[in-house]
Amino acid sequence: MKALNLNSKFILFALLISVIPLGFSLFLSIMNNQKMSSLSVEESMKLGDADMTHIVENVNSMCLAQNGLAQEVISNALKTSRNILESTGKVTLSMDEKVTWNAVNQFTKTSTSIDLPKMLVGGQWLKKNQDMNSPSIIVDKTRDLSVETCTIFQRMNEKGDMLRVCTNVQKLDGKRAIGTFIPAVNPNGSPNAVVSTVLKGNTFKGRAFVVNAWYMTAYEPIYDDSNNVVGILYVGIKQKTLEKSLVDEIVKIKVGQTGHVYVLNSKGEYIVSKNNEQNGQNILDTKDGAGNFFIQDIIEKAHGLDAGNTGSHKYFLNRNEKLPQTKIVKIKYFKDWDWIIGVEAYEEDFLVVKDKIIKLGRHSNYLFVIASAIILAAVMLASFFFARRITKPIMLTTEGLYRGTDQTYLSSTQVSDSSQSLAEGSSRQAASIEETSASMEEISSMTKQNSANASQADNLMMDANKVINTATESMEQVIASMDDISKASEETSKIIKTIDEIAFQTNLLALNAAVEAARAGEAGAGFAVVADEVRNLAMRAADAAKNTAEMIEGTVKKINAGSMLVSATNKAFSKVAESSTKVGQLVSEISKASKEQSNGIEQVTSAFEDMDRVIQQNAVDTEESASAAEIMTTQTEQLREHVGDLVLLVSGKKDQGTALDNYRAIKTISSRPGSSKRKKILPRRPEKIRAVNYLPVDTDEDF
């Protein structure tokens, strides 16, 4: 930024004040587009959800209408069939005539043989007619006048199992389904809804399984003369017949771009699939992209819905070999037909509006960027011409100002260097005097210390002489004591010899006494014992006297040796006393000489201190002059830097000036070895130079 001239800065500033609002506007535009995109997604999903809900409700309404119409047709057919039955005659059972039936359970397909009385209508037996080409009374006439199927059931037992004895319902082989029966109890153990309703005397209307398919039915009880239920009159329409027209209409319904409507039953079998391509196929175990059995989940949710409510479900499914995408399903359960109605579509199909809004937003952003670029180019051209007219006069003024400050700076720098050189010389001289004074002070201190040590040594030698004299006297007393001990030991040795002789004589006497006692026999036995004990004591006394004599003799020898050593020590102490007396005299003379030397050094030190004060004062005065010159140089340099900043602001380049460069070149050459007799030591900048920075203060504490 500093390297730019005023012209460039002016243009840059103009660009900034243009770019900032344009960028902010672009930011707002992008944020607004994103918000619109988010809102479009939210609204599209709401509309899509509502649309799918309406579709599934409409399909459910179609089912309700179709079912209502079917119920009305069946009710009318039941009335027609009843009228035909009544017009034919009463229903009676011929108890005298039995008919054997191979009764087949329509659910389990198991058969059993049973004999039943003939069922007569108006006295006419209904026969066991299986051939569809051979007419059967009542049922075929009902078919011709109203619905496609009609049956007359005969009660088989007290439980209420109902046997088809006359019907136009076909089995898979195309024959009439006579001989099949509806059990009173379903295979799962629950009561059959049709039979239980009829046995109570009521008419059953609704969806029911008939032989091999599901029908929309009506079952009405047939009574005998005793008002007992002996059979059932049935009319019905196959559910697939009702579904056909409705399925065709459902397949035509489109949901979004790729969505569709489908119908499943509780077994997971397609009733209606997309384009009828999978009708009848069981997809109960189909998994979605996440590995979940989503059909089972949809069926479970459908069964859990309350009447009239709509459910929702989402699952992932691969689309066109892409990553799994979310699919939305709206669910309705039409219980009367066991239909799970599903309306499904990919979530992405509802986001087409979002994509269009995003494209529109990007297009508007591109247009905005192009317009902004045109505006910025116009701003750059206008700012360039205005900046040229403003900066040219300022540039001329700053160039003249810069030259003046350059000359001023050169002059102040030369004065500062001269003052500084003088200050450095004074500082070095003061430092030399200070070092010399410190050395003299140190010598004086050492001399005083030597004198004190010599005096102390003299006193110690005098004390040592006294101690040596005392020791000499003590040694003489020890020698006298040793002589007395030697004499006493000789006297003791003589006494021990006398004891030894007495013990010898006593031993001889004891021996003679023992001899005499032996001669005396028994009369001298006691005296012999005493003589023996005396002899033993004499021997022990002799041994003790001998040992004592040996010990005293050894002691006398040691005392004589000790006396000789003490005599030698006494002579040595005498020589030491003479030497210490001479040393004391020499130390006394050294102490006197050290005191005289210390007095002389103190006088020299005092003279150096006077010289140091004068030089210190000179150095301080010189330093103050150098400091003033340095301050002037610093201020001039600061002024020159301000002018340089102004030049930098205007031109973008900071020119240091030729005068200052020449001066620095001269200084560099003069500072090379051999160019001057002495080397200049320049102080650090920009610190102010003070005498205390170089000269130590002369105080007594320094020494």
UniProtKB/TrEMBL annotation:
<dbReference type="InterPro" id="IPR029151">
    <property type="entry name" value="Sensor-like_sf"/>
</dbReference>
<keyword id="KW-0812">Transmembrane</keyword>
<keyword id="KW-1133">Transmembrane helix</keyword>
<keyword id="KW-0472">Membrane</keyword>
<dbReference type="Pfam" id="PF00015">
    <property type="entry name" value="MCPsignal"/>
</dbReference>
<keyword id="KW-0807">Transducer</keyword>
<feature type="transmembrane region" description="Helical">
    <location>
        <begin position="366"/>
        <end position="387"/>
    </location>
</feature>
<keyword id="KW-0145">Chemotaxis</keyword>
<dbReference type="InterPro" id="IPR051310">
    <property type="entry name" value="MCP_chemotaxis"/>
</dbReference>
<dbReference type="GO" id="GO:0007165">
    <property type="term" value="P:signal transduction"/>
</dbReference>
<comment type="similarity">
    <text>Belongs to the methyl-accepting chemotaxis (MCP) protein family.</text>
</comment>
<dbReference type="InterPro" id="IPR033462">
    <property type="entry name" value="Cache_3-Cache_2"/>
</dbReference>
<dbReference type="GO" id="GO:0005886">
    <property type="term" value="C:plasma membrane"/>
</dbReference>
<dbReference type="InterPro" id="IPR004090">
    <property type="entry name" value="Chemotax_Me-accpt_rcpt"/>
</dbReference>
<dbReference type="Pfam" id="PF17201">
    <property type="entry name" value="Cache_3-Cache_2"/>
</dbReference>
<dbReference type="GO" id="GO:0006935">
    <property type="term" value="P:chemotaxis"/>
</dbReference>
<protein>
    <submittedName>
        <fullName>Cache domain-containing protein</fullName>
    </submittedName>
</protein>
<dbReference type="GO" id="GO:0004888">
    <property type="term" value="F:transmembrane signaling receptor activity"/>
</dbReference>
<feature type="domain" description="Methyl-accepting transducer">
    <location>
        <begin position="404"/>
        <end position="633"/>
    </location>
</feature>
<dbReference type="InterPro" id="IPR004089">
    <property type="entry name" value="MCPsignal_dom"/>
</dbReference>
